[in-house]
Amino acid sequence: MKRFDTNATSTATPLFMTPVTQPEGTSKRRMDCKNFSIDDILDDFNKLKVEDPYSWLQSLINSDNLTDQKEAVIRIRKLLAVEQNHPTQELVEAGVIPFLIGCMQKYSDVREIVFEAAWGITNISGGNSDQTMAVVTNGAVEILISLLDHPCPNVREQGVWALGNVAGESADCRDFVIKQGLVDKLVPLIDSSQPMSFLRVASWCLSNICGLSPQSSFLVTQNLLPTLATLLRVSDVQVVTDTCWALFHISKGVNAQVIDEMIKCELVMLLTKLLDHSPNITHPALKTLGHVCCGNHGQTQHALDQGLLNMMCSLLGDRNKCVRREACWTLSNITAGTVAQIEDVINARLIHPLVTLMREDVTDVAEEACWALANAVTGGRDAHIVYLVEQEDQFLETLCMGLSTLRDTKTVSMLLTALDCILQTTHGVSTDYKRMMLQLGALKALAGLINLHSNDSSQQSVCSKAQRMVGRYFSEIDVYRPASFQG
């Protein structure tokens, strides 16, 4: 049975600028000035002998003088770029959004003004939802899209950054910026000749476009995949990490068309090569490949043909629990494939590490390992079952132990199906496998399942399945003794 998964520094700008990820739960980023506080700004105003900064700024905003308006843009940007206690809401209420947008239009040929104004809009759009929507409703998106045609690389990068914040706000905002031309303008700009700072912002922007549900249309996804393949080839951890997460979200629906396009763009091959990288990259790359293996048998086979199984032994032993769990889950979808694919897993010597994880690892990893082993039994031929039971150390013992140690009812139900398949094999109908299971405590564990008392339908299904197994194979033994099991 195949199952879906259960269960992110610019160098082209001054060195004190660094992207800051917003709190967990959002996908927006501000562009703050490192170690730059509101007190520094106020000290600056004091040196200018400005008693009321906001009134002074308002006078500059209302001026028709280029020098005054440039000064206003820079001062506003500095206020928006402090690391802590930035007065974003106060400035929004003071009307700086239409002022900054107007400056980008009026002084489009003055690079510094356009850049500073776009930076200010970036940080407002990286704020809360109301602030991001204020940027949208004031008409900034169309202007920001036009910045992608600007001759200055820094200005183009700033435009992408601000648009990435808008796209990350919601699926509606994402669709709006796509409709305004973000993807059409951005995709042609992405190639290996671009500054690394631009590629970092671009890959993050694309991860926002891909990371919201529902997904964009297939045509948008199809247009993005070759560009994502280009980004996966970039030698930069931040670029590759964001690109891997974009691909994870794109593949999450296990759409056959999307996976076929990923294969066509060599993305499965590229992702497989990333599995020996740092956990930040390995985790999303592996999750994406797990989605590929959720696809049809041909798509799963393509992943195997790229050498996926060769990487699995080290992944199963990874220090990162999430990586071990995803590796087990991916293998469970491979052993839910064809007989030949089950044989490939056996021949890759992956059964023993799976047995070890089911016996010794934390619950969520052990359950995924159980699915991988159980699928190998239920999908294999009698010869495979005999090999697994008689040649793989502690295989049957571990499955029997799982009846008592695992708590997820779907996993236990699948485990019962696997044990039933073992008992139904040509060897199993003799007393050998029955006797082995009795010695391993399977009957006591079955009794515990039979004595479940729950209104939960899935637990009742486990109880019924255990009863049928006892009636079919162990009817001569009284197992109806009180026992407990927590579902």
Written account of the structure:
With 487 residues, the chain is an all-alpha fold. It has 2 domains: 182 residues, Leucine-rich Repeat Variant (Alpha Horseshoe); 165 residues, Leucine-rich Repeat Variant, CATH 1.25.10.10. Helices cover 68% and strands 2% of the residues. It is built from 29 helices and 2 strands. The chain has a two-stranded antiparallel ribbon with strand order 1-2. Helix 13 packs parallel to helix 15, helix 22 packs parallel to helix 25 and helix 26 packs parallel to helix 29. The radius of gyration is 29 Å and the shape is elongated.
Can you describe this structure in just a few lines?
The protein has 487 residues and is an all-alpha fold.
Q: What is the name of the CATH superfamily of the largest domain?
A: Leucine-rich Repeat Variant
| Reported CATH architecture of the largest domain | Alpha Horseshoe
Please estimate the helix content: 55-70%
Number of strand segments? 2
CATH class of the largest domain: Mainly Alpha
**Residues in β-strands, percent:** under 5%
CATH topology of the largest domain: Leucine-rich Repeat Variant
Query: Please, how many domains?
Result: 2
**Biggest beta sheet summary:** 2 strands, antiparallel
Mean pLDDT: 88
Q: Strand sequence of the main sheet, in spatial order?
A: 1-2
Q: Roughly how many Å apart are the termini?
A: 21 Å
Please tell me what the overall shape is: elongated
Alpha-beta classification:
mainly alpha
